[in-house]
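For the sake of transparency, this paper describes our internal protein records without simplification. Because each token names a local backbone shape, the row as a whole describes the fold. One such record is reproduced below, unchanged from the form in which we store it:
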Amino acid sequence: MIEAHSPDASRDEAVRCPLPPRVVVVGGGLAGLATASALVRRGLHITLLESRPRLGGRASSFVDPTSGEPIDNCQHVSMACCTNLADFCRRVGTDGLFRRVPAVDFLDESGRISRLRAGRLPAPLHLTESFLAARYLTFTERLRVGWGMACLRFSAGDRPGESFEAWLRRHGQTDRTIDRFWGTVLVSALNERLDRMDVGHARKVILDGFLRNRTGYQMEIPTVPLGELYGVRLQQWLEAEGVTIRLKSGVKAIELEDEGAISGVRLRSGERIAADFVVLTVPYDRVRSLIPDAAAAAIPGLDRVVEMESSPITGVHFWFDRPVCPPEMEHAVTVGRLIQWVFNHSAIQGREPEGGGQYLQLVISASYDLLPLDKTSIRDRVLEDLSSIWPSAREATLRRWWVVTEHGATFSVRPGIEALRPPQRTPIDGLYLAGDWTDTGWPATMEGAVRSGYRAAEGILADLGSPRRLVRPELPTAPLARLLLGSPKAPARPSAGGRSRSPLPR
């Protein structure tokens, strides 16, 4: 027997069962992926829009038309101190696709390896033993660098607007210590030159990344191409969790109700998608164009975002017909050279070229000096530098090569940058911002991108009356490190605000 329902009964049922809140995430980079992943299984209808035909943002790969092999735009690694990136990878099931590297190898001009790894002492002294054995600095220079690290402990708010290079020279650092230690470590970590670098961000890398915890400095290197790690696998996982993913769907603008709250987004195609919440995770130089003038005027500091600048990274891919660097060497930080990092993908990912040989990726951060050069000139300069490290590169045949320069790889951590970084919550009801360029307390890193996405998700859940703590705490500071370095500043939490939304079911 089929039970008939009257139209009035259907309307009553609709009232009792309201539609789930609709969240539109604009941008499929790490910030957008983190936002969406944190909101699944919470009774929401989530749509993720990406203008490109793939997910992953800057952490992506392209297909080599000659071999059909996926090639990463540029090597992305994380550190053990990146607790939220690690949480994100556990959440989506990709945490097993990284290799933990307990030591960082520094390679000097003589081909000698100095290995930075934790010794027997507690943090912050755990790296002392290996640092004092570093061959690329003299003993006196090591002591001078140690003094500089000690001075960083008291540098918070020292001289606002001062570059880190100027700070180093005020604290007794020489050309050699600046070039061979501080530049070697920090230019690649922050993708900026020391003369354009904010002291606070340099301080965070040294104190929080290397000194507060015994394992914080250890690297996590992907064992698969980035396009698989943050693209294919993430799309499969999100779609299995009910997230609607639309690629090649660029957004033209957000749309607002008469009361000024979010009502949806308008695509470049003219299609409109209704939304109760919108999270804009696009790059800093695009966000203003998506927000109507009247709404932008209500967001303090939004117009200053355009004052941010970008820093470039250049990745160079070489496929040789024979091993050039020692086959067992997975990575090397090069000291005092054009090349800053060497990654042996034949060893890391088992990607030996067809017919044998070796596949290396070389990374140059803050590659301003390379921008005027064409790709062939960059190839030649990098190949010459590589050959001076390992002369076998001159004898080997370079079968294939790629040069990839990301002009806007990261935002520049120049002095005063924190004044330009907006919070994730905006005064516009239902509108959030996310991206490593927003206020996360971290520099331009994957960790910062994930933190921003988690904070945006926290704000949405708080607005819906179901607050959750999503941002993971940083690694614990060791007792002696807390005594000598003090405790790190706790990040601010997003507050609930805006119009009351329909609560989530408990």
